[in-house]
Design goal:
Blueprint: H1 2-9, E1 11-13, E2 17-20, E3 23-26, E4 33-39, H2 48-52, E5 56-57, E6 60-61, E7 70-76, E8 86-95, H3 99-116, E9 129-136
Parallel strand pairs: 8-9
Antiparallel strand pairs: 1-4, 2-3, 4-7, 5-6, 7-8
């Protein structure tokens, strides 16, 4: 349910290089790791994902509703012991300044996801560990 939601409403970025504010970041997974990146924030607020999460109205960002840049859906696969498999939703904000505000952006986006996906609506297989990361890029 979560993956279908993200791929339907989010902008899925392909590959291991992602760009934000004219800066590039490279993500290099190990052999046992899989991930995909979903763009959450767009300055003009036009992504359908923002509307679905209640972060925009009539195609415009809602003031006072900060949001992070990306969600990385991460999987670590242990073929020898499936009980060690990991599923992580990593909420990412890139910042050159104002890292304090980045914390609010991540917290608010996580809260919106939790409201949209209450535990009783998620299949057991869709349970993820939730993490927030601020990447400082001066």
């Amino acid at each position: 349910m979560l993956i279908e939601f993200l791929t339907k409403y989010g902008q899925v970025l392909c590959g291991y290089h992602v760009k934000e504010n004219e800066r590039w970041m490279k993500i290099k997974p190990r052999d046992c790791e899989r991930f995909f990146v979903v763009k959450v924030d767009k300055k003009d607020g036009t992504y359908p994902l923002l509307k679905e999460l209640g972060l925009n109205k009539n195609g415009k960002p809602i003031k006072g509703q900060p949001r992070c840049d990306w969600v990385i859906v991460y999987y670590k696969i242990d073929e020898n012991n499936p009980n060690n498999n990991e599923r992580v939703l990593c909420f990412v904000e890139l910042k050159g300044t104002d890292t304090g505000y980045a914390k609010e952006q991540i917290k608010n986006t996580i809260a919106k996801f939790k409201n949209h996906f209450p535990k009783n609506r998620l299949d057991v297989k869709d349970n993820y560990t939730i993490r927030g990361v601020i990447i400082y890029m001066p």
